[in-house]
Amino acid sequence: MKTATRLVLFLCGWLAATQMSLGTTSGWTADYNRLLGKYATTSGVKYGAWKKNAADLKALQKVVDAIAQEKIAGMGQKDQLAFYVNAYNAWILQEALKKYPTESVKDLFFTFFTGKRIKVAGEQTSFNSLEKETIHGKFNDPRIHFALNCASQSCPPLNPEAFSGDKLDAQFERLARDFVNSEKGVKLSSDRKTVELSMIFDWYRNDFNGGVLKFINQRRSEPIPPNAKISYQDYDWALNEAR
After folding, report:
1. In a 3-state reduction of DSSP, which class is residue 78?
2. Positive or negative torsion for Cα 222, 177, 38, 155
3. Measured torsion, CA atoms of residues 76, 78, 79, 82, in degrees rounded to the nearest 10
4. What distance in Å separates the CA atoms of residue 120 and residue 111, rounded to the nearest whole number?
């Protein structure tokens, strides 16, 4: 009887874990992946076309509704991180589309980012709290900065697929490499004497263990010389609409 009881408990636990895994990879993430593949491009998001498609607006609403009720207990660390980054980006899209047409999601006092306007895993929160307290507060990976998208031109491009725990390292590394090899991330002068970095590297410089230049040069095809004069690009808060 004891062996049978243990077997039943094992099977129940296995089924629960399997259902949880399926829920995070083939439920709302399947719809989210379809929407990203349709509207996210290397030059921005096709907000205009998305706004005109009532079915896809409804589909995104279902995605964020599912994110609001998601159960994260039992998820591994990478699965949790993937979930939270997906949550941030999906809610940004939802709120940006609500404001569209607009020149920028940013308002005078940054209330778009600081107001508790979103719900994630049962918790009412803000974009600012989700990013700084939950994502960066719980997970120590500077590459997160290139995975989060704030619906602005200077932000790293929105990843055209949902993040998943089993692919997270590869996804983060690709995004980091793409960003530091783009002019949006690094503008190196032709004589290699001056360089303009994204403001992200100034705002979050303490997140890059070993220093910003080390992080960048480990991923740059053309490393920044150690004696180059560094300055920072102005941050463009204009909506990241595809052009």
Report:
1. helix
2. negative
3. 160
4. 18
Angle between helices 54-69 and 28-39 (to 10 degrees): 140
Instruction: State the DSSP H helix or E strand holding residue 118, giving kind and residue range, or none if neither.
Output: strand 118-120
Compute CA distances 111 → 105, 124, 219, 236, whole Å: 10, 15, 35, 17
Number of H helices, E strands in the chain: 11, 7
Looking at the DSSP bridge assignments, the partners of residue 118 are 125
Report whether the peptide linkage leading into residue 101 is cis, meaning its omega lies within 30 degrees of zero: yes
Q: Give the angle subtended at the CA of 97 by the CAs of 154 and 45, to the nearest 5°.
A: 45
Alpha carbons 166 and 151: distance in angstroms, whole number? 26
Mean pLDDT in each 10-residue stretch from start to end of the chain (243 residues)? 47 42 63 98 97 98 98 96 98 98 96 98 98 96 98 98 98 98 98 98 96 98 97 98 93
Contact 96, 105 (CB under 8 A): yes
Q: Which of 32, 47, 9 is nearest to 151 (CA)?
A: 47
